[in-house]
Amino acid sequence: MKHPAGSVWQRPERAARGPAPEYSRARIAAAAVAVADAEGLAAVSMRRVAAEIGAAPASLYRYVTSRDDLIDLMADATSAEFDLSRPATGEWLDDLIRLGHQIRGIHERHRWLADLTPDKVIPGPRTLDVLEYSLSLLADLDAPAQAKMEAIVMLGAVITIFVRNQPAGTDSTQADAQRRAAGAGYLATVLAKGEHRHLAVAVTAMAAAGAASAGQDEAQKRSAAEDRLLRRVLSGLLGQ
């Protein structure tokens, strides 16, 4: 099948002539997102999404030309979940951290987002609105425009790493706790030999920090670690 040139965003949703389309891009995107949320990104296919909306597989090509188009629609649909109404406060770092909390929430609801290759996704109108809003939070900051864009990209990248590495469920299992305890025991045995001086200092410092946050649950600890890392990374990138 010959595909029209350009991205899905450059093609009209419906032809200038002929009957009104039976399905909308929004409905197609919602069906694809639901499949990915339930079964992962690999489960999303033209045939599967067509079945979800009750369409013949071949008819879906009237609306999207490929699975890549589907992915573009899905990614942009999740960008609609951002709240872009909050104005900049003048504290750019705090504003970016709050934006990061939104990014994390969306990634936790749609964990397949971490499986996307950013360079292969063509940003749609909602995603561009998010980028515009993100950069507006840095409008008064004296930093190069390129550095600001790199900081926004890094904000998303760091959060993606954290979400990818956290358990899919709300709490770790007893088996997870036992495995962590076994790993800690092995590490303590190795460090006691005195052959890893620098590592021992770092581990001791991390253990002390962990003891100080003993009243927090794992989610709170991850959130605090994420915020701490983001503040350091963003401050470094933007020369503050």
UniProtKB/TrEMBL annotation:
It comes from the Bacteria. The keyword Cell division does not apply. InterPro entries: Homeodomain-like_sf (IPR009057), HTH-type_TetR-like_transc_reg (IPR050109), HTH_TetR (IPR001647), Repressor_TetR_C (IPR004111), Tet_transcr_reg_TetR-rel_C_sf (IPR036271). Residues 45-64 bind DNA. It holds the Pfam family TetR_N. Keywords: DNA-binding, Transcription, Transcription regulation. One of its GO terms (molecular function) is transcription cis-regulatory region binding. GO terms for biological process: negative regulation of DNA-templated transcription. The keyword Magnesium does not apply. Residues 22-82 form the HTH tetR-type domain. PANTHER family: HTH-TYPE TRANSCRIPTIONAL REGULATOR RUTR, TRANSCRIPTIONAL REGULATORY PROTEIN. This is TetR family transcriptional regulator.
